[in-house]
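User: Sorry, what's this?
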Amino acid sequence: MVAYDLKRGIGANNDLLWQRDLPADLKHFKELTSGQTVIMGHKTYESIGRPLPNRQNIVVSRQDLAIEGILTVHALAEAYQLAEHEIFIIGGGSIYEQALADVDTIYATEVQAEFPQATVFFPSLPAGWQETSREQHEADERNKYAYEFVTFTKS
C-alpha cells in the first residue's frame, strides 16, 4: 500500500507530502487495511505516532523497541511470520524496497502533482508487474490534488 507523486516521491522529513490534502487517500487506506496486518519501518511508525486502530501493527527496526500495541521485529521475515491477517506493507522507502520481491499486489495512490521536497521514493517496478485496475479522481473541495487508485499485480 503506497501513495506517491508523479516522480514516485512518498515523503520528506519523516512525513507524508500531502497528508491533510487528500482525505480520500486516507479513507481508501483505512478501508483496505482495517482488520488486517500493517507492517512498517520505524520511521514510518514515528511519522504516524501511534498504533493504527483495528489493525495488527508490526514495526521493523534495527533497534530494540517496546511500544504498547505494536509488535517489533528486526527483520521483515520475522514480521511475515507474526502476521495474523492479510499483510499490507505501508512504508517507508527501505521497507518497500525489501518487500517488493515478496509481494504480489500493490495498491497505489498516484497523486497527480510533483513535490520537489520529496526525499524518499517508491522504487520503480521491475519487469513482471502489470496494472490491473485504475480509478481516476479529480481534485475537489476536500481533495487538493487529482489522484488515481491503481492496482498492480505480479504476473
Notes: The chain has a mean pLDDT of 96.
